[in-house]
Specification:
Number of helices: 10
Strand order of the largest sheet: 1-4-7-10-13-16
Structural class: alpha/beta
Radius of gyration: 52 Å
Order of helices and strands: HEEEEEEEEEEEEEEEEHHHHHHHHH
Distance between the termini: 203 Å
Shape: rod-shaped
Number of strands: 16
Length: 385
């Protein structure tokens, strides 16, 4: 048994020596044979890749953060794109090389039959390396980012002062707006007292109807304006319509202020000027609207919905030229805004009372005076003669 073991061990050693002796020959044979051709595009992402000697790649090569070595006499029939990786070339590239970052190392045996677009990458070209095309180092397009600035740390004092000045400016503008609308209300009532009164009375009687009509007008106006603009010839009319719409909004706002003022001066209506009533109501309305408009997101929207009531009243009364809803003659006299002089009914009653007093005096004189009978007899005798 021992002899068999010894013979088997010796046979194994001999076999191992034969294999070792034939290994260089097998490697030489493997090197002399051409490696297989790659018939597809190749993407190397964060890895290492080597195109062997005499090996061919029939397609494009994309390198993203990887390392690629093109051995001597290797061929790439396509373009090479490099994004932040490393490319070492000893073979032949029959296309263009486009590099965005990374590095390119062209050895002495390298040959590029296309152009190299080098955008921010490091290119090293040794003596003997051939580039048949062009070397382009600028982008083929221009980025225009406009005027850019680097923010700096704000100065606390300047920030506080700027906020203070902004608040003061905003406050003064609000005061100017309130005073201007109040003065406009005073002027409108003085110029057109009946029209202003009709608009305010319409808002007092049916505010929800006026609001609905104002909402419909707001949505219908842009459609009509679009029709006028499309016709081109009617563009001047469209501009006039915009002006009329703006006047209607302002007139409606004054009408709402007038209605509020009438509510405030109900007990002193006989002694307060209608113009002053409208100016006071408009002042209060605009002041409240300015406060409401400061509410984030919904403030401006609330003011807009409030203004639709006045717009609807202006539309229904045709800028105050008619009453809405229609009123009788007696209601119109009772609602007359001018109360500085007595109305016709009061004047008639005073004259009637005065005539009754004179009649009573004459009757009293007729019963107690003898001259009355003598005068009657004298007239009769004169008539007979």
């Amino acid at each position: 048994m021992k002899i068999k073991h010894i013979i088997g061990f010796l046979f194994s050693i001999v076999l191992l020596m034969v294999l070792i002796s034939t290994l260089p020959l097998q490697s030489v044979i493997a090197q002399t044979n051409n490696p297989p051709t790659i018939h597809e595009d190749k993407a190397v992402i964060g890895q290492n890749f080597t195109l062997l000697e005499n090996q061919k790649l029939e397609g494009d090569l994309a390198i993203i953060g990887g390392t690629v070595t093109l051995s001597k006499n290797s061929i790439i029939d396509g373009d090479v794109v490099l994004l932040g990786g490393d490319l070492s070339v000893e073979g032949i590239i029959n296309g263009n090389v486009q590099a965005f970052g990374g590095s390119i190392n062209l050895e002495s045996t390298a040959k590029i039959n296309g152009s190299i677009f080098n955008f921010g990458s490091n290119l090293t070209q040794k003596e003997g390396a051939v580039i048949s095309g062009e070397q382009i180092t600028n982008l083929p397009f221009h980025f225009n980012f406009g005027n850019t600035f680097v923010p700096t740390q704000p100065d606390p004092l300047k920030t506080a002062s700027s906020k203070l000045f902004a608040f003061i400016g905003k406050f003064l503008f609000a005061v100017l707006q309130i005073v201007s609308l109040s003065a406009l209300a005073l002027l409108l009532v003085l110029i057109a007292p009946k029209a202003s009164y009709r608009v305010a009375s319409s808002i007092e009687r049916q505010p929800f109807v006026q609001w609905g009509i104002g909402l419909l007008t707001f949505f219908a106006f842009p459609l009509g304006l679009l029709v006028l603009i499309i016709t081109i010839i009617l563009i001047p009319i469209a501009l006039i319509a915009i002006l009329i719409f703006a006047v209607a909004l302002i007139f409606g706002w004054v009408g709402m202020g007038y209605a509020i003022g009438k509510r405030l001066f109900t007990n002193s209506q006989n002694s307060t000027s209608p113009a002053l009533v409208a100016a006071t109501g408009t002042f209060i309305l605009t002041f409240v609207a300015r406060i409401v408009s400061e509410i984030p997101c919904i403030g401006i929207l609330l003011v807009f919905f409030i203004s639709l009531t006045g717009l609807g009243a202006v539309v229904l009364t045709l800028f105050g030229t008619r009453d809405y809803p229609p009123v009788s003659q007696k209601q119109r006299i009772d609602q007359q805004p001018y109360s500085a002089t007595p109305n016709n009914i009061e004047v008639g009653s005073i004259l009637a009372d005065h005539n009754e007093d004179n009649l009573d005096d004459s009757e009293m004189l007729g019963d107690n005076s003898p001259d009355q009978d003598s005068s009657d007899d004298l007239h009769k005798s004169g008539g007979e003669l």
